[in-house]
Specification:
By secondary structure, the protein is mostly helical. The chain is built from nine helices and no strands.
């Protein structure tokens, strides 16, 4: 099975941060060594299972998928709590349904996407499901990760965009056009994890700007 998905109309114009100051652009503090391809793919697969359970109220099917992938042990404490809760808390279910957006940078980092889709809208989850539901066990093995410089650059760009959104909110200005705040937050979370920002585990990753 090929690893590459085709994304139509994807580009990188969204990360134009020319209006920012030098401090924001040059701050590279807090990053560690980029995570491995295998670790990144395992996390993406877990995120799909979690978001599938949350979006479709399908805990049993998602757990079957995780068992088939042998990834039950890769769930985080919050994710494990979500799967064992009966019934699933509505607030947590909504929050974890957004994790499908955190998958996108991880799929890009493992070369499932040629380019990072712009954060202008939520991704088509059913399109993603068609792919992930056919992925076999061991798909995370021998996965190639993008060069560290590309990943650090993408992380800096999403952090700067997040800063612009927060700054506009703080000063009661219109936000940058055609940008989805929720998508930006999820991508920022995923990319900070990928870069080991403050070396935090997934559940504890900060998205400060």
């Amino acid at each position: 099975m090929g690893r590459k998905l085709v994304i139509v109309h994807a580009d990188t114009d969204w990360y134009d941060v020319g209006s920012l100051g030098e401090a924001a652009l040059n701050d590279e503090g807090g990053y560690g060594a980029v995570r491995t391809g295998e670790e990144t793919m395992r996390r993406a697969m877990c995120l799909f299972a979690v978001s599938y359970a949350a979006i479709h109220n399908a805990v049993d099917k998602s757990m079957d998928l995780l068992r088939a992938w042998d990834l039950e042990g890769s769930l985080t404490p919050i994710e494990k709590g979500f799967f064992t809760a009966n019934p699933m808390p509505a607030k947590q279910r909504i929050a974890l349904s957004w994790r499908c957006e955190a998958m996108i940078p991880l799929m890009w980092a493992t070369r499932l996407f040629d380019t990072m889709p712009e954060p202008t809208d939520t991704f088509d989850f059913e399109y993603l499901s068609e792919f992930w539901l056919t992925v076999p066990a061991g798909y995370w093995k021998d996965v190639e990760i993008r060069p560290e410089a590309e990943i650090i650059s993408a992380t800096d760009h999403i952090r700067d965009l997040h800063w612009r959104l927060r700054d506009a909110e703080l000063h009661h200005r219109p936000p940058p056009p055609d940008i989805d705040y929720g998508v930006v937050i999820e991508r920022h979370h995923a990319l900070n994890w990928l870069c080991r920002y403050e070396d935090d585990d997934w559940d504890d990753v900060a998205t400060d700007t």
